[in-house]
Automatic annotation (TrEMBL):
Residues 41-180 form the Coatomer beta subunit C-terminal domain. It is a peripheral membrane protein. GO terms for molecular function: structural molecule activity. One of its GO terms (biological process) is intra-Golgi vesicle-mediated transport. Residues 25-36 have a biased composition (Basic and acidic residues). It comes from Macaca fascicularis (Crab-eating macaque). The lineage of its organism: Eukaryota, Metazoa, Chordata, Craniata, Vertebrata. Residues 187-318 form the Coatomer beta subunit appendage platform domain. This is Testis cDNA clone: QtsA-11283, similar to human coatomer protein complex, subunit beta (COPB). Keywords: Cytoplasm, Cytoplasmic vesicle, ER-Golgi transport, Golgi apparatus, Membrane, Protein transport, Repeat, Transport. One of its GO terms (cellular component) is COPI vesicle coat. Residues 25-44 are annotated as: Disordered. Coiled coil: none annotated.
Length: 327
């Protein structure tokens, strides 16, 4: 007993303090590297509202890009990252057999969402007063109603719509397309559009905080969502990394505290949204040893946030990611 309390506990404490010191030094180094990247006083400021329509998806400095192209140092981000392609952000709104075919390119900016809707007239009639009617569910707000237009037979047009985002929660955009057929005496025709789901991950960024700040926010936040672990993964560390990747959160527990294998794991996660909202999560998972080495991970994930929408949205995201791993 004397060796346990006088030697081994002292060694464990020294290891924990040294690991915490190394983590603080690493975080300070990262902060100093971030502070070195500053904006010079004579750097140009680009306004997204003043850029051309074909440059809506480009946030880089056009002068810098043209200078790099002239020097032969063109960077091809689209080729390096195929997920950044526009085609992966296109949502089909109607079917191919509908009289009006529509699909939308969803471009998520920092505080608003731009919908570039392609409308195709697949009939041999002229469609008059073709109007895109949109409605939102969640903390989304439609800025302005798109103006009606006239489509010739087998013609197409692009309609742009702006949606403002006010908080971090999952939102749904739904609506329909109404039109009149030229020369017909019937009522207005309506084509119902498929729902567009806005992902919460576009607004959540991994962040860091101290243990005291985490405990203070954990006590202050009043909304909690408890998610039961339901997966077929058998490794605790792999499941934790999967949760970090799917929720875009950062693990505050030191790496040395998570190393090794003891049958259970507890970790604290933290994330910060662009709207100034914080999200906390406590992962408490274990592997039942009595069920054999191939037993699945079990446990709970407790999520706390200041708003109900953020806590529920993160819980839905975790449940959806668990379903994908179980397939």
């Amino acid at each position: 007993m004397n060796d346990i309390f006088n030697k081994e506990c002292r060694q464990s404490l020294s290891h924990m303090l040294s690991a915490k010191l190394e983590e603080e030094k690493l975080s300070q180094k990262k902060e100093s590297e971030k502070r070195n990247v500053t904006v010079q006083p004579d750097d140009p400021t680009s306004f997204m509202q003043l850029t051309a329509k074909n440059e809506m998806n480009c946030k880089e400095d056009q002068f810098q890009l043209s200078l790099l192209a002239a020097m032969g140092n063109t960077q091809r981000k689209e080729a390096a990252d195929p997920l950044a392609s526009k085609l992966n952000k296109v949502t089909q709104l109607t079917g191919f057999s509908d009289p009006v075919y529509a699909e939308a390119y969803v471009h998520v900016n920092q505080y608003d969402i731009v919908l570039d809707v392609l409308v195709v007239n697949q009939t041999s009639d002229t469609l008059q007063n073709c109007t895109l009617e949109l409605a939102t569910l969640g903390d989304l707000k439609l800025v302005e109603k798109p103006s009606p237009l006239t489509l010739a037979p087998h013609d197409f047009a692009n309609i742009k719509a702006n949606v403002k985002v006010a908080s971090t929660e999952n939102g749904i955009i739904f609506g329909n397309i109404v039109y009149d057929v030229s020369g017909a005496a019937s009522d207005r025709n309506c084509v119902v559009l498929s729902d567009i789901h806005i992902d919460i991950m576009d607004y959540i960024q991994p962040a860091t905080c101290t243990d005291a700040e985490f405990r203070q926010m954990w006590a202050e936040f009043e909304w909690e969502n408890k998610v039961t672990v339901n997966t077929n993964m058998i490794d605790l560390n792999d499941y934790l990394q999967h949760i970090l990747k799917s929720t875009n959160m950062k693990c505050l527990t030191p790496e040395k505290a998570l190393s090794g294998y003891c049958g259970f794991m507890a970790a604290n996660l933290y994330a910060h949204s662009i709207f100034g909202e914080d999200a906390l999560a406590n992962v408490s998972i274990e592997k039942p040893i009595h069920q054999g080495p191939d037993a699945a991970v079990t446990g709970h994930i407790r999520i706390r946030a200041k708003s109900q929408g953020m806590a529920l949205s993160l819980g839905d995201k975790i449940n959806l990611s668990q379903k994908k791993t179980s397939i």
